[in-house]
Amino acid sequence: MTALAPDAVLAIFVLFCRIxxxxxxxxxxxxxxxxxxxxxxxxxxxxxxxxSLLLDKVNEQTIHSSPFMVLQLAGSxxxxxxLIGLMGRAFFAALETLTxxxxxxxxxxxxxxxxxxxxxxxPAIASLITMAATTLLFLTDLHWEVLRGLVASYTxxxxxxxxxxxFNLVQLSASLSKSFFLSLRIASPFIVFSVIVNFAIGILGKxxxxxxxxxxxxxxxLLGGLxxxxxxxxxxxxxxxxxxxxxxxxx
Length: 251
Hints:
Elements: H1 5-25, H2 36-62, H3 67-106, E1 112-113, E2 122-123, H4 124-139, H5 142-156, H6 165-207, H7 213-250
Antiparallel strand pairs: 1-2
Helix pairs in contact: 1-2, 1-3, 3-4, 3-6, 3-7, 4-7, 6-7
């Protein structure tokens, strides 16, 4: 056992490079509201919990490897973990971007609230929707799918000394495309609402130029936007969670 201990520790370190770098960016796990020390110990705990499933896949590369080869393994594993985390982060980044659009279309972009997934402040509506999506991530047990995906990644992207840059960039671009298309579908009712309202206000301004219709109708626009948010919030959160779940399951 003493002779095998260094190899086991080295293999666990290589596992931690991918798992820790992925959780560093994965939504929910990487929130700045969670203390850094808690996130670190969570990544270490998950690595140790998954080690029994993955050590055989890593030992083949780490046993009898030179220090330079171990550094190459660690670097490639960090890059793979970061790319996996970025693909998950893209969904919530796209949601935050389009919820900013929602806040602007209904006229409440100025009051800023505390962001859940990012450090900078966001409009109150964007913070509310992001917090709801992050909560649903855990309530629907998708955090277990994140761990299942990490285990499956060692089959799709086995431990090696190099990184297939083209494959990873193709996967990242596909994830960005899916995430922004999904968020655009979520924000589309509000974009249509904004176009119709501004077109109507523009016509009203041409018909009655002596009346400042935009300022008079601002409360009505805000009320209509909030009512539309009330009607569609359940559907677009379900749509977002289903889209994120589809990416986690199918990769």
